[in-house]
Specification:
Structural class: mainly alpha
Helix content: 55-70%
Shape: elongated
Largest sheet: none
Number of strands: 0
Length: about 90
């Protein structure tokens, strides 16, 4: 059991040295784009509690918390797919 934990820790240490933040702008960009589009196309964007967006609330049509979470989730999915698709171009 201890050997398996040490092996997992060693593999994790090697994996963190390979991590890169180069795909992060895609994820942020897609999340904000989906939030902007969804806040204007959802049929009832104000049903439920409002998302705590502060002064940016009017820009995003004061979307509800459920709409905010759904938009961010879908934006992250699109951002990760874009990052994986363009990974060859990003690393060069």
């Amino acid at each position: 059991m201890i050997h398996a934990l040490l092996l997992a820790a060693q593999q994790t240490e090697n994996a963190t040295s390979l991590f890169s933040w180069q795909g992060t702008p895609f994820i942020i960009g897609f999340s904000l784009l989906v939030l902007l589009i969804a806040s204007r196309t959802i049929e009832q964007p104000h049903v439920g509690p409002k998302a705590p967006l502060g002064p940016l609330g009017p820009i995003f049509n004061n979307i509800s918390l459920a709409g905010f979470i759904a938009s961010m989730s879908f934006g992250h999915i699109l951002g990760v797919l874009a990052t994986l698709t363009l990974s060859g171009l990003i690393q060069n």
